[in-house]
Amino acid sequence: MTERPVLVYDGDCGFCTASVHFAERWIGVRARVTPWQSADLTALGTTPQRADREVLWVERGRVYGGAQAAARLLIAAGAPWSALGFALRLPPLRWAAHGLYRLVAANRHRLPGGTPACALPAARR
């Protein structure tokens, strides 16, 4: 029996939470969705530091982060989303997606739904 993938996000970030709700409603997330603050990160094979830095997709013992986690979410959602997900795994789109993800992640506190807590390191929240 295959375990369902797990989507791990920052539950303290309003922008991240809104993004996950959007994906659940409009894309269809075929995974167990959990904020990292209540997840057993050790069992998932990751750390709080990584989970605080980027969204994670955990599947079959592998952890994908950032833009590649989003690509895996899209692939798992099926058509028509899977085509975009597969495209995001290939250069040069992979490189562009990574850069865009890092830009958004660094500025999530400035985006709609973002809060000042999104800008602080986890140790200072």
TrEMBL record:
InterPro entries: DCC1-like (IPR007263). It holds the Pfam family DCC1-like. One of its GO terms (molecular function) is protein-disulfide reductase activity. This is DUF393 domain-containing protein.
